[in-house]
Amino acid sequence: MSTQGFLGEQLGSFRLESVLGSGAMGVVFKATHEATGRKAAVKIVQGEVAENSKLLERFSREAEIVKQFRHPNIVRWLATGKYKGTYYFAMEYVEGTTLDKVLQDRGQLPWREVVDLGIQVCDALQYAHQQGVVHRDLKPSNLMVTPDGRIKLTDFGIAKDLDRTALTAPGRTLGTAAYMAPEQIRGTPAVSHKTDLYALGALLYQMLVGQPPFTGASAVVLMHCHINEPAPRPSAKVEEIPKALDDVVVALMAKAPPDRPWDAEAVAVILRELREKAEKNQTVAMVWPEAGSAAANPTRAGMAVEPKKKPAGKGKKKGKSSGAIRAVSAEDEPGFFTRERLEVGGLVAGLVLVGGFIAYWLWPPGQDYLYRRAVPLMESSRRSDWVEAIREYVDPLDARFPEHPYREQTRGWRDKLALDDAEGRARLLASPTPTPYSQPQTNGERQFALFHGMAAKAEAEGDEAGAERYWREMAGAVSQDDPDDRRWHLLATKRADDLAARIRDRRAFVEEQFRRAVAALQAGRPKEALQIQAMLREKYGRFTDVADLFQPVEPEPEKPDAADKPAEAKPE
Q1: Quick check: helix, strand or coil at residue 40?
Q2: Whole-number percent of the chain with pLDDT over 90
Q3: Which of 108, 229, 329, 420 is the most buried (most CB within 10 A)?
Q4: DSSP H/E element including 420
Q5: Phi and psi dihedrals of 285, rounded to 5?
């Protein structure tokens, strides 16, 4: 039966009404659930796909993957079935249009809108990745935008479920060339959640600029660019863009997966900070300063300078100033700045710039300068600032000045970043839902998995002192000199120190409360004393480290008054 032949037909409980789209895996129809009247999107497979067991298994996998998802930014599964030899599954019908259509109609989007849409895509990806699923085909046509601006991620047809055997043979490439990560193009087993992050970078670039980061006449050209060409900066094409957004797009499109952000949530944190600043009308550091701002080109005596020229991106509004620099003498003499003089001036400026670069490398910044630049970045709450501080200032400081007086501080900064790495990895290793990400890969990770299990059991039993001992034992079991082991040593030491502080504070509190109970008893308030004791036993009685303090506080027997004493017999 042809596609048109399905219109008006009923598959299970769904009546097909119109074609929404089609792809390699099947056709999607708009349909109505007969019993409820609710709209749905029904995907069917037929013909060669239905007869190909491998493709049919991939279709079934998509249904299984979507079925397990419950997220506001991912299309919702409704039903799966087979009706008269036709395989289908029904999904939530999303009112709206594809992001691809939005970009075709509007071109580049304002950065604030890109940030809002990007946060939603990050949330959807983070959720999928936590379920062990990599989408592998993130692109504008697989994102629906509702009338109220909500994003819905669709089409998990080539998603890779990391908990199961891959359906793609090694060396085979699946995906869309304009958004594919280098490891995906090569068809290596290294495809992971960071493959989706690369596509996210390409997607953000396209929303900001109005076109994908790389263009070419064929998929082969695009793949070559993704593997070999450096990631372009949106700021080369966009006039108004925050520096943090420009940087994160480039970081997402790093060629090597380890050089990309840790996960989608790390990207969302950066985007949320930008949105929060914009909503509060706070200053957002821009790549291209606004005209007239202190960050724009400074003026010189006798010269009036217009705004610095910015890139004219695709979709630029007509009527805007070209932004060219116009210099005028004090007397505003016409013709003074001739083309010849400007060319000579440009040559001189170029020589000065080259000289400046030579001077920088011959006389690099001093140790105090590098240290001072690193301090505010390391005091930030953002991991991205720490990474920038280490890369841009701490590494040159330690390399150029091995005996500088800040060695202890820079070592502490490196440990801070290493500990944060370990904390992030530990959350995955300790996850109750097993995924390939939760399998230990290194000696430090294996030690963590072992001792975390014992420490968690001890804590559950109220033996936090025992848990502290386990973490101390782990800290001694891993090397402080090995870079990977060291981060796990730092994590084990921190957890042991945190438990020790908790035990110390708890004991001090319980002892103080018992002193209150004794004082109440001595003051003739036995009921208050017993209430304090009951409260302590309820909240802290399960902890072994304060068990010795829980001795019953019994009220002393009351002494009879003199009037109640029997009269003593007097001798006659």
Answers
A1: strand
A2: 15
A3: 108
A4: helix 407-429
A5: -65, 120
